[in-house]
Design brief:
Blueprint: E1 18-22, H1 28-36, E2 40-45, H2 48-58, E3 70-75, E4 88-94, H3 103-113, E5 114-125, H4 127-136, H5 139-142, H6 153-162, E6 165-173, H7 178-186, H8 194-209, H9 212-225, E7 228-235
Parallel strand pairs: 1-2, 1-4, 2-3, 4-5
Antiparallel strand pairs: 5-7, 6-7
Length: about 240
């Protein structure tokens, strides 16, 4: 898969574990987890259309002869997860909380379904690049289902720690995507504007070719300029 925000080296998956991708969208992290290890993955999202796309994408990767691994996609809400207490070893919640008014309730549900000692990966848009997007375009965040807040790093960390999560790692991601979103916001409603179109072509080339120069630039810029901030936590043993 492509464009993963969560680094599975920081969220190691072990054989036989259960993984929840909460707010899975079109399935990028759920499918990556399935390919990465012999685990049972569930991708959950509120939007049936995204779930249908995720299922279609997974059909290109599914190995019907693989024993000990599975991936299911279901429609559901992060506010009332349809799972038993302590039923997952790993939870991924990537680019979700910024869309939800009562994000604290989602974090409480994550804490409920995550096993003691289990690991959680959270990602949200980084404050500074996101703030500029909001200043460039109201429509960017006022669309239906759009972003309702801009998180500061401490706010996210404190909210997770409030539900018995212990922070152990942080990194940035997708620095090269920041100028693209600034251009999208500047020319909002005109995706065919030359600057938007040309930068998108650059990103597609980077994704397909993965040249060393852009990989190096991304690693260099991500700590300060990444579009997303990604935090990793372990659930307390209580």
């Amino acid at each position: 898969m492509s464009l993963e925000t969560v680094d599975l080296h920081r969220l190691p998956l072990n054989t036989g574990q259960r993984v929840l991708d909460l707010g899975c969208g079109e399935g990028r992290h759920a499918i990556t987890a399935y390919l990465h290890a012999d685990v049972q993955v569930i991708g959950l999202d509120l939007r049936r259309g995204d779930i249908d796309i995720a299922r279609g994408r997974f059909s290109d990767f599914e190995d019907p002869n693989a024993a000990g691994k599975s991936l299911d996609f279901i429609v559901g809400s992060g506010l009332t997860l349809p799972f038993a207490d302590a039923s997952f070893d790993r939870v991924i919640c990537s680019e979700v909380l910024e869309h939800i008014h009562n994000y604290q309730a989602v974090l409480r549900e994550i804490q409920r379904v995550l096993k003691p000692g289990g690991l959680l990966a959270l990602s949200v848009p980084r404050f500074a690049p996101e703030w500029i997007c909001w200043k460039l375009s109201d429509a960017y965040h006022e669309v239906e289902g759009g972003h309702v807040r801009i998180f500061r790093r401490k706010q996210l960390k404190d909210a997770a720690e409030h539900v018995d999560m212990v922070h152990y790692a942080t990194h940035g991601a997708h620095a090269l995507h920041v100028p693209y979103w600034w251009l999208r916001c500047l020319f909002w409603g005109n995706e065919n504007a030359a600057p938007v179109r040309l930068y998108h072509r650059l990103l597609v080339w980077d994704l397909m070719s993965r040249p060393r120069l852009t990989r190096w630039l991304d690693r260099l810029l991500n700590p300060w300029f990444g579009k997303s901030i990604v935090m990793y936590f372990v659930r307390g043993l209580t």
